[in-house]
Structure formats: structure tokens, C-alpha cells
Write a structure and sequence with these properties.
The protein has about 300 residues and is of the alpha/beta class. Helices cover about 45% and strands about 15% of the residues. Strands 3-2-1-4-5-6-7-8 form an 8-stranded mixed beta sheet, with helices on both faces. Strand 7, helix 6 and strand 8 form a beta-alpha-beta unit. The longest helix is centred in the N-terminal third of the chain and has 20 residues. About 40% of the residues are buried.
Length: about 300
């Protein structure tokens, strides 16, 4: 394939069957693409299939898609535990945990299984794209695609080219985002890009507000929902994102920009060290073992 030829994306691979990977597979399949979802855990793949089925059923019940579309989408999704599943993919999207070493290791392992013209994307929410691209044999065909969580209803996708990303790759992925019914927002390759550069420091400041005793969990979230018209309070949102992910993004900002204003709040660090990372673990700033969830502070 020459640099001037348009790139056609028909088959899409997704690495990681967590919330984000599952959501990406869902929207790609609904939009008519063949999807290959890979995870190291068969249990995670079974859970992903169940979650996607439930999500598609919900869309049918709301009249957003037809029953025929639901069935066709599920039929388009293949799952497996080996990277060989990606041999015919035109694009593979890495969507594992926000840990640079894990991402680098996976990307390096992925390359031998891809056809030469295949594109690679990472769903990193903060880690520099150029640095991750360097772990592959095709930095010119590598790009950041930051989907928001939950993927199906969230319309924006940050599109982040690395220093070596060519125009053909950017244009092909930008076109794909449009076909998924979403809007691409270009961000430059700086720590945390646009959304998390703005959002995570706000969340971190909310944790500092709790840490310093200025307000309780309930008062902070209520103040921001009613006073700033946010649909979800910052501490509730942190639990939804995952406190470990919040910590990882703040660490990237703090280390990448060298500004003390990005220092992760000690209380956030403590919660992560305790394994209280939010909804996923059953406890964070709220206790999700009770209904309705009760503030832990």
C-alpha cells in the first residue's frame, strides 16, 4: 500500500475485554464492522459477551436499534485469547488498563501477528502516543483513539496523532469515528490530552476538598451537581472512572508537566492502596455493597 492510497477499514480488533474494550466492540459491531475481541481471560470474554448482550437489549428496549441489528451485531463479534485472531484486521485498538508498561508489552507482542498495512490505535487516556508508537514497527500507522466511558452513549472520541503519525492514518481513523456515529476531536500529544487534562485535576481538587475537611462526600457531590449543573458529582464520577485510573492519569500529569498543582491527593493514593477503587471493587468514596450506595466519609 502506497502512502497516497486511501485506507479502508473493515475488520477491527480490540485488545482488552473490560468496560472500554467491550464498549468499543459494541459500537463497531452495531455500525457494521467485523470485530475481533481478545483478552487473556476466557472469563473476561464471557462477561464481555454477556454485558454486550445486555447493553444491546437495552438499546432495543429504548428503540435505538432494531432486534435485527442486535442479532447482526452479536454475530459480527468473534472472541479469543490469542493475538492470531488479528491476522486479517485493518485496525487493532489496544484498550487495556492505563499502565504504560503493560501497554508497551502488549503492543510489542502484537506486531508479528499483523498484516503490514494494518493500523494500530491505543485507547490511552493520558500516556504519550509517540512513546507508545515507538514500541511498534509502524509509528506512522499508530494513533491515539480515546473513547469515553461508557462508550455507546458518549459521542466524542479524542483523536491524537503521534509525531510520526501520517495523514492517511489520521484521515482513515477520523472517517471511522464518523461511521461509528461519533465526533472526532483532535488533541495534540501532551499528557492527558484535552478531556482528562481538564477533568482529572477537577476530580483531584474535589478529593483535596474532602481530604482537608471542607466538605463531606455528599456535600461536595451535591454542591457540584446543583451548583455547577453537573450530572454526576466529582467523587461519584471518580468512583465510576476508577480511582486507580484517576491516580494513573494524575501521575502522568504530575510527572509529565512537573507542576505541583497536578500532585495526586494523598487521600486518593490511600484509597488506591487500600484497593478501594470505586464501583469496580465495591467501595471507593461510596460503599456499593449497600443500596443506595452510602458515602464512606
Amino acid at each position: 500500500m502506497t502512502a497516497t492510497q486511501p485506507i479502508t477499514i473493515r475488520k477491527i480488533g480490540v485488545i482488552g475485554a473490560g468496560q472500554i474494550g467491550c464498549g468499543i466492540a459494541h459500537v463497531c459491531a452495531v455500525s457494521g464492522f467485523d470485530v475481533y475481541l481478545v483478552d487473556i481471560s476466557t472469563e473476561a470474554l464471557e462477561r464481555a459477551r454477556s454485558n454486550m448482550t445486555d447493553s444491546l437489549d437495552h438499546q432495543v428496549s429504548k428503540g435505538k436499534i432494531s432486534e435485527a441489528t442486535r442479532r447482526a451485531a452479536l454475530d459480527r463479534i468473534s472472541t479469543g485469547t490469542g493475538l492470531t485472531l488479528f491476522s486479517e484486521c485493518d485496525l487493532v485498538i489496544e484498550a487495556v488498563t492505563e499502565n504504560e508498561e503493560i501497554k508497551r508489552r502488549i503492543l510489542k507482542s502484537l506486531v508479528p501477528y499483523l498484516k503490514p498495512e494494518a493500523l494500530i490505535a491505543t485507547c490511552s487516556s493520558s500516556i504519550p502516543i509517540t512513546r507508545l508508537a515507538a514500541r511498534t514497527d509502524r509509528p506512522q500507522k499508530f494513533i491515539g483513539m480515546h473513547f469515553m466511558n461508557p462508550v455507546p452513549p458518549m459521542r466524542v472520541v479524542e483523536l491524537i496523532p503521534g509525531i510520526a503519525t501520517n495523514d492517511e492514518t489520521f484521515e482513515a481513523v477520523q472517517e471511522l469515528i464518523g461511521k461509528l456515529g461519533k465526533i472526532a476531536v483532535r488533541a495534540e500529544d501532551f499528557p492527558a490530552f484535552i478531556v482528562n487534562r481538564i477533568l482529572l485535576p477537577m476530580i483531584n481538587e474535589a478529593v483535596y476538598t474532602l481530604y482537608e475537611g471542607i466538605g463531606s462526600v455528599e456535600s461536595i457531590d451535591t454542591a457540584m451537581k446543583l451548583g455547577a449543573n453537573h450530572p454526576m458529582g466529582p467523587l461519584e464520577l471518580a468512583d465510576f472512572i476508577g480511582l486507580d485510573t484517576c491516580f494513573a492519569v494524575m501521575t502522568v500529569l504530575y510527572e509529565g508537566l512537573g507542576d505541583a498543582k497536578y500532585r495526586p491527593c494523598p487521600l486518593l493514593v490511600k484509597y488506591v492502596e487500600a484497593g478501594w477503587v470505586g464501583r469496580r471493587s465495591g467501595k471507593g468514596f461510596y460503599d456499593y455493597t449497600e443500596m443506595p450506595p452510602r458515602p464512606t466519609r
